[in-house]
Design the sequence.
C-alpha cells in the first residue's frame, strides 16, 4: 500500500518460505495454511489512535514514510521470509516516532478488519521513552516494530495483542552505548500467533530485559521467540516468560542468547515456565545459548508442569471449589512476571485479559 517504504521484487516470493519454528523428531510444530497468502489483499489504509507526552514527534502513514525514509526495514529485512514480504507489500498503517528527553507514546489499533502495522522509533541520546502498542482487530494482524536506541537512552516497550484468527509480530531493537530496552509482550486471542522479539546489543554497556505473558486456550497456538545478540562489551540480557496453557492449546517457546566473539564480560540469563491446565494441552521449549567468548556469565532454564495436588488440596481445604482454586493458582503463577512490568498501562491491561480468560472457563 505504501510503495515507497521498500522496493520488493515480486519474483522472489516463490523462493521465500514461511518462518521456521521449533522442530522435534518427526514433527513441525507450527504450520501455516496453504491459503494464508491469498488473504493478504484488499486492505484499506488505517489511522491509529496515538497519545503522547513530553518531547516526542509522531508522523503517520504517508508522512511517516517520508520522514523515516530508509529507516523502514533497516533492522528487519523484508525478504527474510514470506510473511515479512507479505507484510511489506500490504502494510496499511505506518507510524514514525522521534523521541528525546522524557517522553511517552501510546498507540492503539482498534479495527473491524485487518491491521498490518509498522512502527519505527528513533531516540536521541539521553532519552527516556515509554512506548506501547495495543491491537484489537477481527481480521489478519501483522505488527512490525523497529527501535533505534541511542547512547545512554532507555526505552520501555509494551504490547498487548488481541488479533483475529492469525497474528504475526516482528520486533527488533538496535542499542548503542549504555542503551537499554525493556520488552513486554502479551498475547491473548487469535488461533495462530507467531511472534519474534530480537535485541542487538551493539554498544558497550547496553542491556535488555525481555518479558512475556501468554495464555492460549481452546485450540489456540502461540509460537514465541526471544533472541538477544551480544556484540559490545559488558552487555546484559534477562529473559523471563510464563505461559498458561488450557484445553487443546499449544505454547511454543524459543529463547536464544548469542554471545559473539568480540563481546567481553557479558551476562545472559533466561527462564521460561509453563503451567498446563489440561491433559490435552501441549507445550515445548527450546532455550539456547550460543557462546563464542568464554568470559561470560550465562544460564538458561525451562520447565513445564501441572497444578501441584498439594497446592490444590490446600486451597480446597480453605473452602475454595475447583474453579476458584484454579483461578487463584493461575494468578499466582503469573505474579512473579507481573511484578517485573514497569509500565502500569500495560500491566493493568494484562491483568484484565488474564481475568477475562479465567471468567470464560
Sequence:
Amino acid at each position: 500500500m505504501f510503495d515507497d517504504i521498500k522496493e520488493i521484487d515480486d519474483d522472489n516470493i516463490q523462493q521465500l518460505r514461511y518462518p521456521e519454528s521449533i522442530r522435534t523428531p518427526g514433527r513441525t510444530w507450527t504450520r501455516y495454511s496453504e491459503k494464508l497468502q491469498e488473504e493478504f489483499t484488499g486492505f484499506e489504509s488505517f489511522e491509529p489512535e496515538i497519545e503522547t507526552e513530553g518531547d516526542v514527534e509522531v508522523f503517520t502513514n504517508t508522512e511517516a514514510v517520508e520522514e523515516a525514509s530508509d529507516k523502514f526495514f533497516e533492522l528487519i529485512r523484508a525478504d527474510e521470509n514470506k510473511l515479512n514480504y507479505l507484510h511489506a507489500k500490504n502494510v496499511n498503517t505506518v507510524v514514525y516516532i522521534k523521541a528525546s528527553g522524557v517522553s511517552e507514546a501510546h498507540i492503539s489499533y482498534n479495527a473491524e478488519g485487518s491491521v498490518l502495522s509498522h512502527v519505527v522509533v528513533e531516540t536521541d541520546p539521553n532519552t527516556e521513552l515509554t512506548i506501547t502498542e495495543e491491537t484489537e482487530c477481527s481480521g489478519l494482524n501483522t505488527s512490525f516494530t523497529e527501535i533505534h536506541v541511542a547512547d545512554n537512552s532507555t526505552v520501555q516497550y509494551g504490547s498487548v495483542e488481541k488479533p483475529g484468527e492469525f497474528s504475526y509480530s516482528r520486533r527488533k531493537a538496535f542499542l548503542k552505548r549504555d542503551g537499554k530496552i525493556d520488552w513486554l509482550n502479551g498475547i491473548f486471542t487469535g488461533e495462530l500467533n507467531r511472534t519474534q522479539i530480537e535485541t542487538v546489543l551493539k554498544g558497550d554497556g547496553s542491556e535488555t530485559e525481555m518479558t512475556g505473558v501468554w495464555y492460549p486456550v481452546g485450540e489456540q497456538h502461540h509460537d514465541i521467540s526471544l533472541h538477544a545478540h551480544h556484540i559490545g562489551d559488558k552487555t546484559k540480557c534477562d529473559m523471563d516468560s510464563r505461559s498458561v496453557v488450557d484445553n487443546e492449546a499449544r505454547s511454543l517457546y524459543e529463547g536464544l542468547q548469542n554471545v559473539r566473539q568480540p563481546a567481553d564480560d557479558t551476562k545472559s540469563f533466561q527462564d521460561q515456565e509453563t503451567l498446563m491446565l489440561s491433559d490435552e494441552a501441549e507445550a515445548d521449549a527450546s532455550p539456547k545459548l550460543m557462546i563464542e567468548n568464554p568470559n561470560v556469565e550465562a544460564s538458561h532454564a525451562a520447565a513445564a508442569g501441572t497444578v501441584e495436588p498439594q497446592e490444590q488440596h490446600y486451597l480446597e481445604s480453605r473452602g475454595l471449589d475447583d474453579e476458584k482454586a484454579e483461578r487463584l493458582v493461575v494468578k499466582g503463577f503469573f505474579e512473579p512476571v507481573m511484578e517485573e512490568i514497569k509500565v502500569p498501562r500495560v500491566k493493568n491491561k494484562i491483568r484484565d485479559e488474564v481475568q477475562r480468560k479465567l471468567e470464560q472457563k
